[in-house]
Amino acid sequence: MSRLLSVVGARPNFMKIAPMIDELKRFPTIEHCLVHSGQHYDELLSGNFFADLGLPKPDVNLEAGSGSHAVQTAEIMKRLEPILLDYQPQIVLVVGDVNSTIAAALTAVKLGIGVAHIEAGLRSFDMGMPEEINRKLTDAVSSLLFVTEQSGVENLKHEGVPAEKIFLVGNVMIDCLLRHRELAARSPILDRLGVRQNGSSCRPYGVLTLHRPSNVDDPKTLQGILSAVSALAAELPVFFPIHPRTRKNIESFGLGRYLTGGAGKDPTGIVPLEPLGYLDFLALNDRARIVLTDSGGIQEETTALGVPCLTLRENTERPATVEHGSNQVVGVDSERILAAARSILQKPARRSQRPPLWDGKAAPRIVAILREHLQREGLA
Ligand code: UD1
After folding, report:
1. Is the alpha carbon torsion for 136, 137, 138, 140 positive or negative?
2. Is any ligand 1 atom within 6 A of the Cβ of residue 66?
3. What is the pLDDT of residues 217-268, one digit of tens each?
4. pTM score > 0.90 for this model?
5. What is the C-alpha to C-alpha distance for residues 184 and 278, in angstroms, rounded to an integer?
6. Nearest-CA neighbor of 116 among 90, 79, 77, 148?
């Protein structure tokens, strides 16, 4: 019997682990323990995702909660260590680039447990971004690096990682999206928001998401983005599911005047919404005319869906979404955002291709490599 333990913590982790759990179930000789760090604890950011994705209740919840980066990371490490000592997994699986990812990787490697990192090698080359620090450090202590796109392989090689640790396997987040797309299409969200017309056709609408500290913690930047999007929202309604951090800042900076839109019959303006569950958000993105975001994962999801995406950042760690997909990195200057958005609305949607191996089969590839590794190391 082999024992794997996965750690998840924040919203973008859950859809990455779901296809892994499904695949691992096929192998009765692998026992799997799912640990939730508790980094995200709101129903809207966590519980609803477990329900939508059919994820099992975590075996352990560390309930580490919010705090400064140091406090949050340290709290997760302190609470995870005794679990690892007790469970004695052969491998700890971590996904993505959040604080839970680095905290778990560091705790495991210090106990001599091998770490496998899913979504390794991505680099924005911007160390001002907390996720970039998490990515680099997690990769540095991982012994198996599962990469979503070719740029990740190049980055790791450039950092001197031996080729035998690097595996280009595709994208588990896209596995999850392709598996849930049909189910999501049955979500009533488009009717609720008033954009579905007689059966299947939709009025054009946009989607906005913002949560990155560099965008939402600075009043001027946040105002610039909201003013560009509200000009765009005079042409088509823009639905804005708001992350708790962003909502708090919009209120405290007095920027609520930009969120004047209302859902329902004939929606207009920027329409503020609570954070959406996985299926509702997938349904909303799938039919959007344009998506504006500072998220990493949404750049990938829109690429897979072929929906035009404007990334409101100065860089992306996911260049395949620009090279193959529908993504444009436009920064945070209001005029530039508006010009790019208008240009998308004027033209028929640009053709987008999925990057190589974004075919829904990343999780089976990863599990095959993990099994081989366990056998080779005599851990199976
Ligand atoms: C985290 C990740 C980010 C990811 C994002 C997705 C890090 C460094 N950042 O950012 O990469 O894209 O999740 O959402 O790990 N809060 C709540 N309810 C919760 C959790 C948080 O209200 O369930 C509020 C708290 O005020 C908290 C703040 O959001 O202080 C930030 O939460 P945190 O987990 O530190 O980072 P995110 O901004 O969510």
Report:
1. positive
2. yes
3. 999 999 999 999 999 999 999 999 999 999 999 999 999 999 988 877 778 8
4. yes
5. 8
6. 90
